[in-house]
Amino acid sequence: MSRPPGNTPPIWLYDGVCVLCSGGVRYTLKHERNDAMRFVAIQSREGRELARAHGIDADDPESFLFVENGIALPKSDGVLALIRHLDGPARLLLAGRILPRALRDWLYDRVARNRYRLFGRKASCEMPDPAQRHRFSLPEAS
Fold first, then answer.
1. Do the domain assignments include residue 30?
2. 112 falls within a domain
3. Of 34, 69, 85, 110, most Cβ neighbours within 10 A?
4. Hey, how many other C-beta atoms are within 10 angstroms of the C-beta on 76?
5. What does the alpha-carbon distance between residue 61 and residue 65 come to, in Å, rounded to a whole number?
């Protein structure tokens, strides 16, 4: 029997070679309230399949994707949905909800297009800490 969408943990599809994205994953691991979120690098087999399932080009991963309760939330909507799962100062960014989505996504696109130049790029995806490794894959259907 497969797990109902409401019982699946949230999934963050991220760019595993992006320094900004990897830093965001480390921050999330530290500040997530319920330690349930899963992280999938777009460069992985699972990541490429998840990207394809949601219409994202895995070879040009400018888009942020957060999947919650079976609903794919791209760009700024995804970022804000992820932040709702965190404690700490990142929650201040939720004030961005007052901005129109078009403006939020425009700002998101500017950072996404320039993230390697601004923050750097790694040669390969970072290996997760062994204690957190189970969170770096898609959940098994039950």
1. yes
2. yes
3. 85
4. 22
5. 10
Range(s) of the domain holding residue 47:
9-123
| 11-14/65-68 β-pairing | antiparallel
For 29, 88, 94, 125, the CA distances from 6, given in Å and listed in that order, are: 21, 25, 23, 29
Contact of 73 with 17, CB cutoff 8 Å: no
Q: Where are the beta strands (DSSP E) in 25-80?
A: 38-41, 65-68, 71-74
Q: What token pair was written down for 71?
A: 């609903």
Q: Could you tell me if residue 137 is inside a domain?
A: no
Domain count, the chain: 1
pLDDT value of position 140 = 64
Mean pLDDT of 7-35: 90
Of the candidates 1, 136, 8, which has an alpha carbon nearest to the alpha carbon of residue 67?
8
Are 108 and 81 in contact, with CB atoms under 8 Å apart?
no
Measured CA to CA in angstroms, residue 74 lies from 53, 64, 110 at distances of 13, 5, 15
Mean of all residue pLDDT scores within the chain: 86
Residue type, 76: S
Which amino acid, residue 86? Answer: L
Report the residue count for the chain. 142
